[in-house]
Structure formats: C-alpha cells, structure tokens
Amino acid sequence: MVTQTWLYDAILYIYTLSLLFYFSDFVGPNRSAKRMGTGLLSFVWILQTAYLFFSLYSHTRLIAFSRFETLFILSWLLVAVSLVINRFFRIELFVFLINVFGFAILALNIFSNPQMSPTLAYWNINDELLFIHISLAVASYVAFVVSAIFSGMYLFLHRMLKEKRWSQQMQRLPSLDTTDKYGFFAAVVGVPLLLLSLSLGIVWIALEGNYALFFDVKVLNSWFVLLAYFFYIFQRMVLKAPGNRLALWNLAAFVITLLNFVLGGVYSTFHPWA
To answer: Is the Chaperone keyword given for this protein (predicted)?
Structure first.
C-alpha cells in the first residue's frame, strides 16, 4: 500500500491541469482543450481505479474499508460521473464544478489520513498540503500578472490609436486583438488555479480545526479577488463589453490582487509577511 504522498500529489497536479483545460473550454469552446481535459481526467480516474483494485485485493471484506478508502471511492465516483456527463452532454461548467468538489474531497482524504507520510522526511503532512496550496496560488498570481500586462498594453495601444499617435516602435507591439486575447487567456488560467488553491486552503483550515480562520482577512480578500476575475470573464462572455472597458476592469482586479497580497499579508493571522 502506498503511504507516501508523492503518488497522490501527482494525481492532484494532473487533476488541476485537467480542470484548467475544462475551464478553458467552458469560457471559449475549444475541442482541443476539451480533449486534453478529458484525457487528463481519464488518467486521474485510471490511477484512482488502480488504487481501488489494489485495495479490494488487499481486503477480504468490504466492511474492512477505512474512512480513507470510502472517501477515495466517493472522489472516484465523482470523476466517473463527470466523465459520463462530459461524454453525453455539453455541460462543461457542471463538469468543472463537480470536479472542484471532487478535488477538495480527494485532498481532504489524502492529508487527513494519519498513515500517510510526507514526501520529504523533515515535513509533516500539513506542510505538503500547504506546499501544493501555495504553488497553485503563486501560479495563479503569475497568470494574473501576465494578464494585467497585456491589459496595460491594450490600453496604451488603444489610446495611441485613438489619438493617431503612431511610431515605428509601436509597430513591434502586438495588435489590439492579440493583446486582448492573451490577457483574457491568462486570466482564464489564473481563475481555476486560484479556486483550487482556495479549496486546498479550506481543507487545511478544516484539518487544523480553527474555523475562525475562514474569516481571516487574507481568506476573505482572496474570495473578492476570485469574484473580481469571475466578473471580468462574465463581462466578456455575457455582457460583450468593449475591449477598453474589459482591460480597465482586468487592471482593477489586479489592483485588488495586489492589495490582497500586501495588506492581507500584514493583517492576516496566518499569512504574515511582517
């Protein structure tokens, strides 16, 4: 029986990548992204299935299943259901959301198991959970920085074109359409990464048992950041807002992210920078 978490960490990262492709397909229908998401999610299901078969082989009676294995079966079934729905229906948002829930259950199940030993000997099991949580959060911030830079470039180009101020150097910059598209794509990458990072943060708080941390400044502000970017995507997909307004809102969402990173780090009870 595998007791070290490296295999389960790999499953969580593959799971994350599959949800990135699913979310990308939801915001802009993309058959290639959907195929990649389905393939990666199928691989997660295969790894889970292999573990379950090994567990069945190891137990003589189903009653001997532990809470870990029971919750693992629940996560496995959620992935299976999402794959079936994905095969016969076009409900990408449902598939994405049910798998965010399955992802959180899988993480809670893995890191609450006392028999698990962390990959690095000098860590405890919660350190490994925090490492994955932080790595996803940092990756989301990188995506938001990239998105903000492209939005800033869009506003600069838009103003130069409106004022008919053109130069040879500006010809080396990408077009308005390109900067808008890349800025949106980066935000689409950052949103699910932040959502999954927050789900792991919730798991960590639940394992710590200090539920007052749900109302910590950094936690609450992180939800505001997520809502700001969701509204940015909503404006583009549903409201069909013009590019300059989208770019302004994207920069505003990035300012909220910076405030969350700086002020939350100062006033947070468990994310202190100073």
So the answer is: no
